[in-house]
Amino acid sequence: MNPLILVVDDCEVTLGLIESNLDDEFEIVTLESGQSCLDKVLEIKPDLILLDIIMPGIDGYSVCQILKASDETAFIPVILLSALDQVADRIEGYACGAEDYVTKPFDGDELIHKIEVALDNADQQKKWARQYEDKKEEQSVARSAIDQLYEMGALMNFHQKCGLCTDAVQLGGEIVEMCHALGLDAVAQLKGRNGARYTGCQNGSFEAKLLSQNFRNGMDLHLRNRSVFNGEYVSILIKNMPQDDEFRYGRFKDNLQILVNSASNRMEIIDLDVLENVSQNENLTHLENIIFHIEKTLNTHNKVVKNRLHELLAETQTFTKGLNIEDSVIEALDENLTRCIDQARKIDSVGEIMPVFNTIIRESQISARG
Fold first, then answer.
1. Which residues are CB-neighbours of 271 under 8 A, at least 6 positions away?
2. Distance CA 136, CA 151 (A)
3. Which residues contact 219 (CB under 8 A, 6 or more apart)?
4. What is the pLDDT of residues 128-139, one digit of tens each?
5. What is the dihedral of CA 169, 173, 175, 180, to 10 degrees?
6. Is the model's pTM score more than 0.70?
7. Cβ(193)–Cβ(274) under 8 Å?
8. C-alpha–C-alpha distance, residues 296 and 288, integer Å
9. DSSP E strand stretches across the chain
C-alpha cells in the first residue's frame, strides 16, 4: 500500500500539480486550509503532510506548530511549501517542527525525493524511539539512574573511540553513531583548515546551512525538538531532542555539550597533524630544491676547476721545457705532468683535485732529487 500524503494548499493549480506529480507513487488527499487540516488530520491519518505556509486564516507555520505539540500527530513528518526562500524563513520552519522545506515552483523529482527521505527518517526515528523505550521498559529499578549509567558508558566509549580517530570522516561517523546509541537523529559539521565536512547530510543542504550559520554565530540553538551544539571545531544538530521529558532533555544537553567539546579537541589535533604533514612535505620539497641547486652549482664549479687545473698543468709543462736543467730531469717532469694532465681530464668532483696536486708535488720532488 502506498504512503498517504495529505496536501494542504489554498491554490487549486498547486494542488493539481502536486497530484499529477505524486499520484503514481502515493495516495493523495487534498485540503484547502490550515483549519481543515487540524480538524481532519486524525481522521485521515496521513503518513506525511505537504503544508503551504501562506494561506487564509491560520498559516502553515502555526498549523505545523500545533501538530508537533500534540502527542497524536507529533511523529507525522511535515514538509512546508512556500515561495519564500530566505534562510530566516527556513529557520522559522525548523522552529515550528517541520522536517523539510520546498520552494515554489518545485521540481517534481526533487519533491518526491524529499518526501521519500522524510518518510524514511520518520520511520527511523520511530524505530529509535521504540528501541529506547524498550530498553527503558526492561529496567525495573532506578530506571533514571540506569539511563544515566548507560549514557555515561556510551559517552566514555565515545571518548575512547574519539582518541583513535585519525581524520574528520572517522570522527564524524563516531559522533553520529554515538547519538544514535542514545536514540538521537544527528547531523555533524567538522571544521578544519580545508573547510567544513558534514556527516548525516549533504554539503549545501539546509541542515548544512543551518549548522554553518549557527557556527559563525558561536551560540547554541534550541528550537523545540531541534538543538544545535557548538564547539570550536565541531557542531552537531539533533533533530529529535526529548522535549517531553525535562530531566532527560537537560541531561542530554549536558552530555551532548561534553561530546562536542571532546570531539572538537580531537578535531583540533587531527587538523594540526594535517598542517604538520603539509609543513613537512613543504620542507622536504624545499630541501630537495636546495640539494638540486647545490649539485648544479658544484657540477658547474667542478667543470671550471677542472678546466683551470688543466690549463695550469699545461702552462707548467711548457714552462719546465724552457728551464736550463738536465734533459733527463725535464723528461721526467714532462712525463709526470703529462700523466697529471690525463688525470685532470678525468676529475668529476672537487675532492679529486687534491690527489692530482699531491702527485705533481711528490713526483717533482723525486725527479729533482734524482
1. 192, 193, 233
2. 12
3. 230
4. 877 776 766 665
5. 160
6. no
7. yes
8. 12
9. 4-8, 27-31, 48-52, 78-82, 100-103, 186-192, 195-199, 221-223, 226-230, 234-238
